[in-house]
């Protein structure tokens, strides 16, 4: 059985689905501070299998000990953490507590339970401002400019020290580039709280009319069209990378870094153009000043992951954007159920139905009591 911390979240839910499809038994531990139980019900529906879910916190040692005692856990995929850069600047203690303190407690509980296989969600943010692109794993880590980035680097260092000190550990430090997109079913996807910070969720929310217009942060970067370049990676490709890392860790000891990116950079204007083509709409946007802390260009050299894990991103930008858009259209309020949808739930007849809002309502209506508690 694989323990997945943060498995109800955006990336975790896609990884849980892949684990179930590959035949693994899965236990999700999530405090639902940034996610919904509904995501896991949809994962079960897509997989045609059930999973174990415990609402709980990686910072609670007694709870972790109880889980390791109760379930035959062989390895851990560790997604749980807080991830909003701006919020981390305002509330650094929360970030160090959740991300660093939580990871430390998790490792202590794993060691005491004799579980030494761990896949950690790191980020390309640990490279800081890259000296050259593409970035390979040999590149020096930078000085993250915010507590979120610091917390990722601190956990990486903690895990490296741990693997150096105790040869029983097998640890993957997966450095994600820019995960976007959603499962092609449109049933699970990214559901940011409040106004999104990231580019694609912002674009899709402008397009459905929840936000007025996109600010393109900086059109004077030293890039071909002046806007920032990133390596966007489809969340399903990313999820699959975790399964291969998990398998690889059966054969190798120590801590190993793998970049998970496509190796292709795309600018903000390019994303807008592809989005407009797919949706056949015009996206309202304006060129705005640079956002503080942003870098001009960042994309991965993913060849180490291909060579060592046999992993390669398969989905291109068009699929990423089309899938994100399908998710947004089918779930205009994400996993939250709006008053409008609640009304439609009351009115849903027993006969077959169609339409996106109704579909969302029915999905929720068939959920378990914890999902209904969210209504
Ligand atoms: P997410 O917020 O959707 O998922 C994180 C999950 O962890 C949520 O379900 C949340 O409820 C849970 N959680 C938070 N603190 C917890 C705690 N103390 N105990 C138990 N559960 C807790 O975020 P995501 O985008 O799926 O990111 C997953 C991981 O990947 C995070 O560690 C994040 O830092 C990392 N990462 C994300 C990105 C990105 O762009 N999304 C990029 C690089 C790295
Ligand atoms: N970006 C933008 N407008 C937004 C959000 C992001 O122009 O509302 C740009 C940002 O400057 C960067 C790119 O889009 O060049 C990706 O930003 P995101 O926040 O998604 O990822 P990160 O900066 O963490 O790589």
Task: Describe this entry's structure for a reader.
With 375 residues, the chain is an alpha/beta fold. It has a domain at 2-182 and 232-263 and 301-313 and 334-362: 3-Layer(aba) Sandwich (Rossmann fold). Helix content is 43%, strand content 15%. It contains 14 helices and 14 strands. It has helices at residues 10-21, 37-47, 61-70, 85-90, 92-113, 147-165, 199-207, 235-248, 268-279, 303-309, 317-330, 339-347, 356-365, 369-374; strands spanning 2-5, 26-30, 52-55, 75-78, 117-123, 170-176, 178-180, 214-217, 229-230, 232-234, 254-260, 266-267, 285-288, 297-298. The strands form 4 sheets. Strands 3-2-1-4-5-6-11 form a 7-stranded parallel β-sheet, with helices on both faces. The protein has a 3-stranded mixed β-sheet with strand order 12-9-14. A two-stranded parallel ribbon has the order 7-10. Strand 2, helix 2 (37-47) and strand 3 (52-55) form a beta-alpha-beta unit. The longest helix is centred in the first third of the chain and has 22 residues, at 92-113. It is globular. It binds nicotinamide-adenine-dinucleotide and uridine-5'-diphosphate. Uridine-5'-diphosphate is lined by residues 178, 197-199, 202, 214-218, 228, 230, 268, 291, 294. It comes from Pseudomonas duriflava. Its EC number is 5.1.3.2. One of its GO terms (cellular component) is cytosol. Homodimer.
